[in-house]
C-alpha cells in the first residue's frame, strides 16, 4: 500500500473547505488508491466549527483517510505537508478599501509562507485559492524563498472549467469533449478566457471551437464576460460565493499537476511567469500548461492575435498594479 500523502487545507471551516475536504478524503484529488492525511487550519473564532468538520470526517468513515489534524496553530498545520491548499484569507467586506483587504492578506500569506518554508515536507506543492489569488501566491513565494517557485501556484482552473462549460452549453456537446480553452492572467474580471486554440472532439478528429460556434461576436463578447462575471452571478443566485465548483476545480488542479495532463490536452494554472508570451516575468499569471512527472510547463508557440494580445496585456497590467499595492503594504 502507498504511504499517505499529507494535505493541508487552510480556511477549512469555511464554505469551500466544507466542500473540498470530503473530495480529498474520497480520492478525488489524488486518486482512488492514494491514502491521505488531512491537516485543517482555521483561525480561533472558527475553531469550534473546524472541530465539527473533523467530527464529520470521522463520521463519514472514508477508507482512504488515515488521519485528521484540526488546529488553529499554523506551525502544527504546516508540519510535514506534501500539498498545501490555501483557501483561508480575509474577505473584502462592504465599504472596505482595496488596500486594507490587500494589507490583511499580505500579512496572512507572509506568515503562512514562513511556516510552510520551515515545516512543510520537501517538495511541497502549494495551491492558493483565496483572493486575491495570484497576488497572495506571489507574496507566499516571496516569503518562502527556499520553496522552488515552480511549486507555488494559484487557482484559475475554476475559470477554465467555466469556459469549458459555456462552450459545451452553447454547442450542445459533452463538456468532456471540449478542450484547450485558456485562461490568461489574473483570477479577476480582467482574466482573458481564450478559445482561439480550443477544440471539440468530433466523430473524425477534432474541430475548432471557433469554426463550430461561427459567431466571433459572441466569442469575443458575451462568452468572455459570462466567464469573467460568473463568480458574481453565482453570488447573486446563491447569496454565497461558488464553493462546490471551486473545490472540484482545486482537485482538478492538483490531480493534473501530480498525475499529469492527458496527451494533447492543456489546462490553465496560475504560475510564476518566466516571460513567456511577453508576460512580465515575476508575476503569478495564468497560462496554458501541461503537466508531467509532477511538474508543469507552459505551452509554447501558440499564436496570439491582436485582439488576444491586448487582453493578455490588460490583465498583466492589473497584476503589476496589484503587486505594487501588495508591496506597499509590506513597508
Ligand atoms: P469563507 O469565508 O466561507 O471561508 C474562509 C475561511 O478562512 C473562514 O473559515 C475563515 O475563518 C478562514 N480564515 C481567515 N483567515 C485565516 C487565516 N489567517 N488562516 C486560516 N484560515 C483563515 O470563504 P470561502 O467561500 O470558503 O472562500 C475562500 C476564499 O476563496 C475567498 O478568498 C474567496 O474569494 C476565494 N475563492 C477563490 C476562487 C478561485 O477560483 N480562485 C473561487 C471561489 C472563491
From TrEMBL:
Q: Where does the signal peptide begin and end?
A: none
> Which PROSITE patterns did the record assign?
MDH (PS00068)
One Pfam family here: Ldh_1_N
Q: Which residues form the Lactate/malate dehydrogenase N-terminal domain?
A: 7-152
Give the binding site residues for substrate. Answer: 92, 98, 131, 162
Any idea which residues are catalytic in this one? 187
Q: Does the keyword Oxidoreductase apply?
A: yes
Keyword annotations = NAD, Oxidoreductase, Tricarboxylic acid cycle
**Catalyzes what?**
(S)-malate + NAD(+) = oxaloacetate + NADH + H(+)
GO biological process: any one? Answer: malate metabolic process
State the family it belongs to.
Belongs to the LDH/MDH superfamily. MDH type 2 family.
Return the protein name: Malate dehydrogenase
